[in-house]
Amino acid sequence: MRLDDERPSDNIEDRRGEGGFGGGFGFPRGRRIPVRFPQGRGVRRGGFGLGTLVILFVLAWFLGINPLALLGGLTGGGGPAIPVPQEEAQNAPAPHDTASRRAADAGKIFVAKVLGTTERTWQRIFRDQLHMRYQPPRLVLFSGAVRSACGIAAAAMGPFYCPLDRKVYIDLSFYRDMREKLGAGGDFAQAYVIAHEVGHHVQNLLGIAEKVMRQRQRLPRARANALSVRMELQADCFAGVWGHDNRHLLERGDLEEALNAAAAIGDDRLQRRTQGYVVPESFTHGTSEQRVRWFRRGFESGDIRACDTFSARRL
Ligand SMILES: [Zn+2]
């Protein structure tokens, strides 16, 4: 990607090195996170009771679904909230020497520039096609674990979007995992990850996220999962629309990088990798083939109307 001339977005919050557990609840070191939170004042964030969010996570746990599937995580492979010992969170890489600091800064600048491209794209589409004003999300960089309005998340869960505080969360070590464990490297693949999460933000602004969340609650698990898949594939398609709008930034091989990444995080491939077999009813994000196809659809058309996964007969 040619990002040299791109303006970095200001909507970045750098919370790396803070850990997700500093202060507040005072979790015992090295123990699993208790699901009971202190009652009373001071635990509300963004106008939503933490209790509600805890219930959401506990419910998701019992239903056997990844709570972040409800919140727009990038993959369905994370499993329920993963407790991280406090020690580990505190020992998360804090850039000390110049080389790693420079690398960390480069990562931040990259993410800020990509976020800037999503702002330009969606501002235009909202203004010209939807006749709405686009309110950009904020993007939080974290290391190890992070507390969001949607609950506490560990880096192992992958990047996600929290509709309650309208923020995208990413630990940049995910990019290393993508490259080394999933074989999905490349700058455009990394940019696609952000564009996918921003796609969830667009769904949130358009009221799609809330509608889906409400419908999911009434459905049996397999059908609720099927609805999640439609939502995720739409976020992939929206990422494709963003790619189309920014195709002047692409270099040779970039599109293939994004398609390769979309394939690498398909439910079927991730399940085969982690558990050795595939359970289609448990899919929450779509197969590799579907994710590639919907990204491509957005990319080729550049039209959000091509992304109506909810009325598509065949996904
Ligand atoms: Zn997602």
Task: Please sum up the structure shown.
With 315 residues, the protein is an alpha/beta fold.
List bound small molecules.
Answer: zinc ion
Main sheet: strand order: 1-2-6-5
Structural class given helices, strands, pairing? Answer: alpha/beta
What order do the SSEs take from the amino end to the carboxyl end, as H and E?
Answer: EHHHEEEEEHHHHHHH
Low-confidence stretches: 22-49, 61-65, 78-90
Strand content: 5-15%
Describe the structure.
The chain is α/β, with parallel strands linked by helices and 315 residues long. It has one domain. Helix content is 47%, strand content 7%. It contains 10 helices and 6 strands, in the order βαααβββββααααααα. The strands form 2 sheets. It has a 4-stranded mixed β-sheet, with helices on one face. A hairpin with a 4-residue loop joins β5 and β6. α3 crosses α5 and α5 packs across α7. The radius of gyration is 19 Å and the shape is globular. About 15% of the residues have low confidence. Bound molecules: zinc ion. Zinc ion (ZN) binds next to α5 and α7. Zinc ion binds next to α5 and α7.
